Amino acid sequence: MRRRLLIVEDEKNTRDGLKWALESKPLEIDLAANGDEAWERIQRQSYDLVISDIKMPGLIDGMELLKRIKGRSPTVAVIMLTGHGSIESARDAIKMGASNYLTKPVDLDEINNEIDRCLQSQAMREENMALRQELESHYGFHNIIGSSPPMHKVFEQVRLASAAKSTVLIQGESGTGKELVAGALHYNSPRKNAPLIKINCGAVAQSLLESEIFGHEKGAFTHAFAQKPGRFELANGGSLFLDEISETTPEFQVKLLRVLQEGEFERVGGAQTIRVDVRVIAATNRNLEEEVKEGRFREDLFFRLNVIQITLPPLRRRVEDIPLLIHHFVKQVCEENGRPIIDVTPRAMAAFQNYAWPGNVREVRNVIESIIVMSRSKEIGLKDLPDRIANDTSGAQTITLQAGASLKDAERELIRLTLVSCGGNRAEAARILGIGRKTLYRKIDDYGL
Ligand SMILES: Nc1ncnc2c1ncn2[C@@H]1O[C@H](COP(=O)(O)OP(=O)(O)OP(=O)(O)O)[C@@H](O)[C@H]1O
Ligand SMILES: [Mg+2]
What we know:
By secondary structure, the protein is an alpha/beta fold. The chain has helices at about 10-20, 35-45, 60-70, 85-95, 110-140, 150-160, 180-185, 205-215, 230-235, 250-260, 290-295, 300-305, 320-335, 345-355, 360-375, 385-390, 405-420, 425-435, 435-445, and strands spanning about 5-10, 25-30, 50-55, 75-80, 100-105, 170, 195-200, 215, 230, 240-245, 265, 275, 280-285, 310, 345, 380. Helix 1 (about 10-20) links the parallel strand 1 (about 5-10) and strand 2 (about 25-30). The site of magnesium ion has 3 residues, from helix 7.
């Protein structure tokens, strides 16, 4: 793509000379003889680069033009040209956002290099923006699939919580989307342009965790050959995602508590107190309240983390999301593999809905991926499903209840099963169950089905 350059210069010779010298570059070049003319052009046509003289006749001189360009679109690169006597202004121009200034008579190598530099940094910025947009769309709400009442509640919580700085604790079984929600919290927050730093506390040796998170000074321990900043410092201005927070030692938990309370800490082996502005998002697939009761997790830290709690429901508690997820992943995997999007037969879909998905959404994604990659069928039928799903009759036609279950448990299971067997058709389910539709809706809500 060719970029647009505007050369603003009142001396005709310099203006034409510059145009001639830059003609071999991948640029569309326009000329303006003074600031007023330039400003008119800029309002009609957007430019990537402007080269402008400082001293020019007319109402708008180079400095005024620079001010207006930067006010209109700060990403336009502006190179100033100075004759003798305007060096002072040229320095001011840099403060006002000019990329650089060159003295006249213009050295052609110099201007060529300067333009290359501006083009490169623009390309880099655009690349960064594209990457960020990709991240944002990955973590945007539209990539978290779900239309069940419990997922609606999650969306609402994420929407409200993302604006604040309060610590969030995300709980939920493995594969329910905790990391996805952490991303949505960050990328929908005012901190989205600062980093989201992640660390899995369960995957790092506990002896190293402290130095990973708080950093260390040179010589703090045997292998500390150089000073290293920790994740808290790297996340400054942004968010820190502490995954598997339950897998930490009490000593570590004390240190973490202090940062959450005071916003400050020291690097391992360091004396200097470091202050940071970081939003902490923690996640666990255990029940942290239980861990507290069992004495495995500090109660004071739990209260600090648990300012906002988002709990992701397991997939078996939101059966109506299963078809949405299946379609979503079928489309995604087919696209990734350059295959046309295939259908899922109603019987296969019923089996998917009937299965308990202990690995939750991650398991759905894995199952769909393996089916699509390993078979060439034009649709996904019962025969394509793994045995554990195709032959799972546990929930299909019968409900199993343990002695000790309450009437409510029984009712919940019966409603769930009926809904599954009618493929989610509520009117039909209400008829079979012999209750009114409104009553059924209320119960579906109450039971979080
Ligand atoms: N609601 C959802 N919509 C679309 N994709 C989802 C959803 N929930 C989870 N996923 C996908 O499922 C996979 C697992 O999600 P994620 O890693 O967020 O789970 P987790 O709760 O952090 O699991 P674990 O406790 O095992 O770390 C990811 O590929 C994620 O993109
Ligand atoms: Mg995770």
